[in-house]
Amino acid sequence: MHLSDHPISQRWPAQHPDRVQLYSFPTPNGVKVSIALEEMEIPYEAHTVKISGDQHTEEFRALNPNGKIPAIIDPNGAGGELVTLWESGAILLYLAEKSGQLMPKDSQGRASTMQWLMFQMGGLGPMFGQYGYFSKFAGKEIEDPRPKERYVSESKRLLGVLEQQLSKTAYVSGDEYSIADIAIFPWLRAAKDFYNAGDDFQMASFTHTMSYLETCLARPAVVRGLQVPPRE
Ligand SMILES: N[C@@H](CCC(=O)N[C@@H](CS)C(=O)NCC(=O)O)C(=O)O
Predict the structure, then answer these.
(1) What is the pLDDT of residue 217?
(2) How far is the CA of 67 from the centre of ligand 1 (A)?
(3) Right CATH number for 107-219 from 1.20.1250.20, 1.10.230.10, 3.40.30.10, 1.20.1050.10?
(4) pLDDT below 50 — which residues of the chain?
(5) 68 lines ligand 1 (CB under 6 A)
(6) Residue 49 alpha carbon, nearest atom of ligand 1
(7) What is the pLDDT of residue 1?
(8) Which of 85, 168, 172, 209 is deepest in the core (most CB within 10 A)?
(9) Would you say the CB of residue 216 lies under 6 angstroms from ligand 1?
């Protein structure tokens, strides 16, 4: 299939159809992909998918039936094939493989990177996200304190696991910055600055984790990637 034949192109037409097409919004899951693309210097075109409703449109669901950002189309997959992909962890792995970057070459480093990527996808992201629902969004009206307490305690436990690792290594899978870091630190930033979870999670007590967050946020590619796509 050609990019222009994909239903997504009817609502979000490409100006640069030769580039990787990113359909996203600057949330913690969305910026993982724009940061990775910036770090890897892969040419791309970003389209804003507003998560106040765009994610449920027929055109977007033709690309991601799960109705969530981010999603990509690579018009230049292996063998020149068009590749469509959603789920931020899968996209990070795909881009690392495509570029040969941000994934350690040795067996242990590669395994650790996937381990910490899964830790984020199956643990840190869902727990922080549910905390956000029960503390900032509709769930905060729920009187029963147990859901929020549960997500606070799980989030703190996961931060403790991360802290233990970061007391030993500069980045989660060792001395090398990798796609696992790109999955994790946007969620630390969101917990601190968007959900204002500093007190609930006692974030300041996780000193290695907080200084790691600042190190990651200072990277020029991260500064750029955090602004993509623009909120309009
Ligand atoms: N596991 C998915 C989660 C994606 C996700 O939850 N995206 C959120 C924004 S961070 C979204 O699209 N929310 C809109 C909605 O749920 O309707 C991934 O990592 O890509």
Answers:
(1) 98
(2) 8
(3) 1.20.1050.10
(4) none
(5) yes
(6) 12
(7) 87
(8) 172
(9) no
Q: Separation of 53 CA from ligand 1 center, angstroms?
A: 12
Q: Select 3-102's CATH number: 3.40.630.30, 3.30.160.40, 3.40.30.10, 1.10.357.10.
A: 3.40.30.10
In the chain, domain spans: 3-102, 107-219
Q: Which of 29, 48, 118, 137 to mutate to test the pocket of ligand 1 (most atoms within 8 A of CB)?
A: 29
What are the pLDDT digits (tens) for 28-52?
A: 999 999 999 999 999 999 999 999 9
Q: How many whole angstroms separate alpha carbon 18 and alpha carbon 87?
A: 22
* Intrachain domains 3-102 and 107-219 with the same fold: no
For ligand 1, mutation pick of 32, 34, 60, 68 (most atoms within 8 Å of CB): 68
Distance 86 CA to ligand 1 centre (A): 10
